[in-house]
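Example A, followed by Example B.
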Amino acid sequence: MTEKERSSIKVELKSRKIVEKKLETAIRALEKPIARIKAEREKRKEELSEYRDERDLLDAYGWGIITEEEYDDLRDRMAAGKDLIDNEKSEYEIAQEMMRSWLRDIRSDIESLKFDLLPAEKQVEILENNYRIAKQRIERQKARAQSK
């Protein structure tokens, strides 16, 4: 590897580390709104469990215990079931998942670039060690499969 290539890889490595830190910060920034959303979701589940059926919901609405919007929301959720509440994801949760995926990719890139900067002898040593470990895992899996 030429010195120019090495220098270029170092710049790439530093830039990815910057992106890594920014993503980590953005992911942490979403934790507070996500916690609030999850708390609201739990509250909705509890509210849903307060009412046995749509008639109970209608009574609560009629007595002014819940608003029309809450009545519509709870009726829809009751019809769909509590599983819907558990499985729904907010835009914040989806955004955080996306950023975590990008962060995994960036971290993989960082490790790859670090590997590229190693001397050839060290790279060979690491690859041989990884091959040895993989071979041992395969042998263990074969042994388990034969013992069944």
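Example B, a separate protein, is given below in the same form.
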Amino acid sequence: MGLRILPGRWLSHVACIAYLLCTPTAGSQPADPPSDLYVTARTEFANGNYEKAAELYRLVLDSGHAPNPTECKVRLGLAYQRLKRCDEAIEVLSAALRVPVEDLSPDAQMLTRNQQADAQWGIVLCRLAKGQYELALRAIEGSSTEYRKELFCGNAVWQAEYQNAFYRGLTLEYLDDYPGAVRSYLKAALGEHPDPTASIRLASLYEATGQFDELRALVQRPEASGILRGVVELHDLARHGEFEALVARLRVRRVTLGQPWEVHVQRLEWEAAEAARLLALHPAAALPLLKTELTKVGDHGFVYYALGLSATKEAAMVLGEALFETRNAPYIMTLNYALKLAGDPGKAVMEEVSLAHPQLLGYSSYAFPSHWFLEEGIDFRELPVEARLPRSQELERLRVTLQRGE
């Protein structure tokens, strides 16, 4: 039986969807049932195809027969969040938080509460992306209390604690509460999660405001965090002009053999990444040392990274020469990335390369990650020149309190 539309009358969008899902026409295949759409939506979401995932989750929810309505709402909201459709994301995720759990079985309660915890964190990220810092702070507090995940794996617990403390610090910076931000960053840095970002941010804050000695006094104590102590040591090398020692850190690899544009490499090889960033702040002194390093046998990935961050004409020319000489595919990719980092000088070199050997720029259009530790659309506030930060005695008292679990 065909569909008959009366003159001047139109079916609503919802009715059309219901018709297409439930009423196969002659010679056509039946529409996928909600359960099949649900499976496909999960696959698309896992593969990062958020536009398609959102479309499918919307169809599943509109069908009225979603296999797991709360999960579908949360995944739809998170897909919107990743697509930067924050207003829609907040609306859908807030609806997921209103799903009652009291009448569910214990296992279903735990599953739903954890899905709601994901929804709450999606709201945190949307509030931050929209610059709504008071609301973001309120959402972060909810994430650590009412919507806290029930976790049984130590690593997952540490990650959740780090995430809350770190983003709380970032939010407090935007609210001009630098003492509070430092306390949150220190809580993250002293935790068990091996992410270096909180430690790096602490060092940057204390250095930018001329109070670096206060942080150094804390890490000189034997109980101080290994990562925080390591970051402070790297900054001290730069402050004292010991650039050869920083170049040597570019060769330090802990567990990975990847390249510096890869997210997991930036996280795990934080020492080499931070050394490269510090060297790039002193291009005149660093360039001769980096050129010498390229003549040595070994991994040059972070040397290229440091040159790219330098963003000078001379550094870009060195990268261009290295691109002409190498036949190593991972290095070609890293050199493309480094030249993109170099800004206008890198762009000029890439134009020259494109005329002679365009095949060497095969990765120039690749979507390299732009954020290593922060979600897309969220960034740190510009470092302050003046701010009152906790002094060494207060930092030590806070360290003791945190390590006691108080």
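On Example B: The chain has 21 helices and no strands.
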